[in-house]
Write a structure and sequence with these properties.
alpha+beta, three-stranded mixed β-sheet, binds zinc ion
């Protein structure tokens, strides 16, 4: 039995559970039960406000979000967790960083907790560029269930890859 690409770095016990769900075609039922509601953040503008509210609440002293948008992303495995863009520019001698939040278009129909997880991930990068301990601590500070939701989001991506919709 080969393990789905989204779960390669998880421990074997989790991989086995996940592959059982996938092989018995129970992913959708599992996710629906746990996440009955899709988010309703449908435009770039709404995404910006949503991210900014979270930022104001948890990460006041970080740079401003310069832009938030849903974009086309070719490779979900690389881009499912969003891409964070740090653009450095020289403004009158001062180096300014631009912080953008991009979320894959296919995540428009994701559960609300998953959108939150993606935005939390991107916001944590405003402070920590690497996926280190401090980074994940920040994520859990903003969303205590962060790790579980990230695992479940990979299951959501399995559905997307199969051309299925959750809602
Ligand atoms: Zn990241």
């Amino acid at each position: 039995m080969s393990v789905n690409k989204y779960f390669l770095h998880y421990p074997e016990t989790i991989q086995n559970q996940v592959m059982q769900l996938i092989n018995s075609k129970k992913v959708k039922a599992y996710l629906l039960k746990k996440y009955p509601n899709a988010h309703n953040i449908n435009s770039d503008k709404a995404l910006y406000h949503y991210a900014n509210d979270l930022k104001q609440h948890y990460l006041r002293n970080t740079p401003q979000i310069s832009k938030a948008l849903y974009g086309k992303q070719k490779d979900l495995i690389q881009n499912a967790l969003g891409t964070h863009t740090f653009v450095s520019r020289n403004h009158g001698g001062k180096l300014k960083s631009k912080h953008e939040i991009r979320i894959a278009q296919s995540l428009k129909a994701a559960p609300d907790e998953m959108l939150k997880m993606l935005v939390v991930h991107e916001l944590a990068h405003f402070k920590e560029k690497d996926h280190n301990k401090a980074f994940y601590k920040l994520c859990e500070h903003m969303q205590p269930q962060y790790h579980q939701v990230e695992l479940d989001m990979r299951l959501f991506l399995v559905l997307v890859d199969q051309g299925e919709y959750l809602y």
